[in-house]
Amino acid sequence: MGLEDEKKGGETSGETPDKEMGLSRKNSDSSLSPTEDDDEDEEKKPQLGPMIALKEQLEKDKDDESLRRWKEQLIGVVDLEDVGETPDPVVKILDLTVRSPDREEMVLTIPDDGLPNPKGPWFTIKEGSKYTLVFNFRVTNNIVSGLRYNNTVWKTGVKVDSTKTMLGTFSPQAEPYQHVMPEEITPSGIFARGSYSARTKFIDDDNKCYLEINYTFDIRKNWQ
Predict the structure, then answer these.
(1) How far apart, in whole angstroms, are the C-alpha atoms of residue 6 and residue 9?
(2) Is residue 25 helix, strand or coil?
(3) Which of 155, 163, 145, 157 is nearest to 37 (CA)?
């Protein structure tokens, strides 16, 4: 989330902080409108050649032992059962885990409709607590290049955090990948507590979006 610096400024000045966070919830139409951060993702990209299905690439020169080893060094050992005939990679975000030394892990399954909990917060986190976000995801069909995590958080319609993190480039494999974010601390104090809205997106170098999810979460005095 990235909420730690919100805690002191609000208590002393009463102003809404403009510090950046990192997890969130469902939003009003105005807060979910395109932002400058979204516009940056639409900047011109260099023109690349056409994508080729990974299966086709692997089968090329398959009898050449040196080329086969070179390809394995580049992309790793690929399970052909997870490789399709089309060039587009498939990335499925399986779940999001909130880890904190103060409580058991919260494993949040990603719903197919992209609406974690339309009637309330997806989760609650205690103020002033240390936490770490963990993503589990699976890649099939082709290599995904430059997969990244974008997260924007609002409170009462004001953006308080924007996070962009490069996760990396991943080859298809049967086992899920896991990415652990750096540890953060939630803000504390009367102005930090309350409900937050967030939009989380997972996109690649081609700006292909594999998941966009809007949700809400609460910061409270105690875990609930």
Answers:
(1) 6
(2) coil
(3) 163
**Nearest Cα residue to 81 out of 183, 174, 143:** 174
> Which CA distances in Å does 122 have to 77, 96, 216, 218?
37, 11, 6, 8
User: Are the C-beta atoms of 188 and 6 separated by less than 8 Å?
Assistant: no
Residues of the chain with pLDDT under 70: 1-86, 114, 118
Q: Cα dist. 26→5, 55, 148, 177, 200 in Å?
A: 23, 40, 21, 27, 10
- What does the alpha-carbon distance between residue 118 and residue 216 come to, in Å, rounded to a whole number? 9
**158: CB partners within 8 A, 6+ apart:** 16, 18
Residue type, 111: P
Verdict on whether the full-model pTM lies above 0.70: no
What pLDDT does 117 receive? Answer: 72
Give 128-170 pLDDT, tens digit per residue: 999 999 999 999 888 899 999 999 999 999 999 999 999 999 9
> CA 76: distance to chain centroid?
24
Residue 154 pLDDT: 97
